[in-house]
Amino acid sequence: MMRLLASAAVAAHSSELAINSIIKTTSRSCFHPLLVGFPARSMCSAAPGAKERRMQIGPHSVHFVEAGHGDRGVILLPGALGTAWTDFKPQIEGLPALLPHHRVIAWDPPGYGKSRPPEKEFTVDFFERDAAAASELMQKLGIQRYSIVGWSDGGITGLVMAANKPDHVDKLVVWGSNSYISDTEVKIYEGIRDVQKWSARMREPMEQVYGVDHFPKLWSAWVDGLLRIYHERNGDICSGKLKHIKAPTLVVHGAKDPMIIPDHVPYLLNNISNTDLHVFPDGKHNIHLRYAKEFNTIVAKFLLG
To 10 degrees, the CA torsion angle through 211, 217, 222, 224? Predict the structure, then answer.
């Protein structure tokens, strides 16, 4: 009943609003898909008690940040081209106090941030490859069971992890994520390919990570990767896997998120067996940064419940 009520609420309340937001936002020259709303991504990496570490996962020396203590674990999975610090600084700083029995792990996915070289290859199965690498990281850290908190692309990786490793995942939180690519989203991706059309404020954090010359190339390769999934898989990223997810799942949604069509929210709620929903009525794509304190409290309550 929760899923049905939530689906109806999302469809009725946010469909027209979110679609209008997509149309308006993609026409702006300053749009950065991962930074809709404020504040923007930050390169600051100061968090008391956080430790930066590395682990060899396949060909990559994977960089990650560890905060907190305990015998339970939670991994934070960033969005496209994102890193532990650009995407999860408020969570690295805030979640350990709310989750005193958890080790909080935030990583730079292989080929992103400090987990280079080698560079990222956006093959048609790059989400599956990231999911396998994240699972291996947690196992090598000795965390046999863990929860997943994934944003945007990281939420997709989390969905795949939870489906492929159901006996290892305790709980799952996703937001700004989709299990398939629609025709509308193909237009969105093409519309944001040229980073020179973004504002400097939105572009510069990623230029600091990847360099002014390399960032546009990597971003364009990411767009090509999603379009490859759209054409070669008919847009199916991981929809067929959702039925294999056993972990209780919280879908958090910004009702004004312009990066995903609103249909994805009820789709996830109705295709994952044990789900709940929390909506930020004025939230956009990066609700965990814009509403960090409230977001952290919601996530911690769900993970401890």
Answer: 180
